[in-house]
Amino acid sequence: MSIHTTDQGWVLETATTGYALGLNAAGLLTHRYWGRRLTSPDDYPPAPNPLAWASFNSAAQSTPEEYPGYAGETFIDPCIKVTFADGVRDVVLRFESAEQRDGDQPELRIILRDTAYPLRVTLHYRVHHAHDLIERWATATNEGDAPISIERMLSAEWHLPPGSGYRLSHLTGRWADEMNLRREPLVQGLKVLESRRINTSHHHSPWFAIDRGAADEDSGQVWFGALAWSGNWKIVAEVTDFDTTRVKIGLNDWDFAWRLGAGEQFVTPSSFAGYSDAGFGKASRSFHDLVRAQLLPHGDAVRQVLYNSWEATLFDVDERSQVELARLAAEMGVELFVMDDGWFHGRTSDRAGLGDWWPDAVKFPSGLSPLIAQVNALGMQFGLWVEPEMVNPDSELYRAHPDWVIHFPTRARTEGRNQLILNVARQDVQGYLIDTIDRLLTEHNIAFIKWDMNRSVSEPGWPDAPGDQREIWVRYVQGLYHIWGTLRARHPQVIWQSCSGGGARADLGILRLADQIWASDNTEPTARLQIQEGFSQVFPASTMESWVTDMGPEYLPLSFRFHVSMCGSLGVGGHLVHWGAARRAEAAGLIALYKAIRHIVHQGDMYRLRSPHDHAFSAVQYVSKDKAEGVLFAFRTHIPRPANLPPIYLRGLDPDARYEVEGFAGARSGRAWMEAGLTLELADFGSTARRITEALRD
Ligand code: GLA
Fold first, then answer.
1. Residue 698: its pLDDT value, please?
2. Nearest CA to ligand 1 atom 12
3. Among the four residues 30, 386, 645, 694, which has the most C-beta atoms within 10 Å?
4. Residue ranges in the chain whose pLDDT is less than 50
5. 221 is in which domain, residue-wise?
6. Distance (Å, rounded) from C-alpha 343 to C-alpha 353?
7. Could you tell me if 578 and 597 are in contact, meaning their C-beta atoms sit under 8 angstroms apart?
């Protein structure tokens, strides 16, 4: 059983972790424990009853509430803040009841009620036992007659064991430089990470990991979490003046408001969090397993090798140019040919066309079907790029519906990449996009859609909003999920890719709709190594689309470029005509190798052996779930002096089984490969992919 009710409250247990909460003497729902699973449900400590410190510091301020409201003398950054119809602006939540649902994913619901107003808040705790994760979200219900204005409502507050001295790991970046891993000490005060851009953003990712300062990939305690949401989000790590540390996560309250009418409910997105007693690597693998087993529409099916024409032909697409590329791609073993931007009505550059999602009559006088038929005849499936949420002012759609974009009526409409954002919170916009993309998918044999989103929001107005205009931040994302979800339901076989100028829409929410994510527009392989390391903190390799393009210096061998991309879902994006026959033949060999190992990369466990952020010599390893096979990738960028490369210690093998590692004579035990390691020789800008195979047992 995963949920226990005892005299002290509730205990949630996963395969290796325990999480306890309960009511303290003051009747507050407080946190009791989060860490390694204990022997018995009675082992978990009781709810704490802190003492007041001074007239400036009440007991409530030191109480680790599970879901603090803005109320009384708490002074903690709250999870929820509302204004009631009479102007009262605090929330005094007290325990009302608890419910438990058993099943594959047991759930505990704690129902809290305001002491004076008809506001009910339900805290949901779902146990993902096998993945060592707990999912939390909250629901607010207005049980009265008058509206309530919600000004902040986060998904969860997660408490660390009492103490400070913790270290926060997070991901930061910008366009073409996403997902840089940062680690920094947490000190008294608030550390805020957020998006205010209406999408997840290149700049920060809704993910955190907190350790005691010395955890590494294999050891140390790590508490980690992420939010399943593709819009404005916020993470606040708070170290109090009383040596306690907590982190809260949810919808960003910046410029947020929600009018909760009589009888209505507001549901937050889910946050997922876990505890690892074996470092950052185990934490990542928990997320990888969750994503593949529970979020992705197509689960852990291996991904096809794709070719994408963007970097080769840019906007200059037509049947002839695409078929020429498709022929060469098919010869190399590519399985899916994706035509990127430039194919639709009036799209000669980024100045026009967005919104008019039908084939351009000049470039494709007979439509897309002849091209698709030729791609299919070459043995490949066909995929297409769209950017549904956007419109160029120079388009039929904008001329017909200038009021459909997000805007303030008295302000200029700031363009980004010459485009404005359709307000997908509007039902008429949703209807238009569903019909238009549905028609494309119904009329053509399209197996794959790349869904792009190439700017951040400005002038976030919704003049004829039915409620508070500030609801746009949430309703936009709900609208996006509705459009995408409807299309997915109508065309379940289609594989979707989430792209937002690279990796600005990479989150656990979008992975319920998209199977793949374009991690970055930066395809330079040495830069990509670091981006991929950051990406792998949360997302499994199968979701990480990675193309071999023409970006990168001439001295980077083709094999290095391929090895980097083989660490994810391999694609090719170079100009194949310019590659020449010899390079294409070499690429064909590398694609064949990838097809032989991709099930391990996509479906296995990932171990980051040496960080490309910290070292010019880096390595990553994948091991099949049954531990019978694996693959090791190692990369040397530039080390400006003669170097003996340090040993690589493999991970994840069965210590008692015997394995062969390609390039090394004889089988050795898994323990030997992991404890004594192996030594590689690589020149500058050299790389290697070595298969690891369990030797036949006697
Ligand atoms: C974005 C994407 C690219 C490409 C272009 C097309 O930048 O990230 O991969 O699709 O748009 O305009």
1. 61
2. 341
3. 30
4. none
5. 3-295
6. 10
7. no
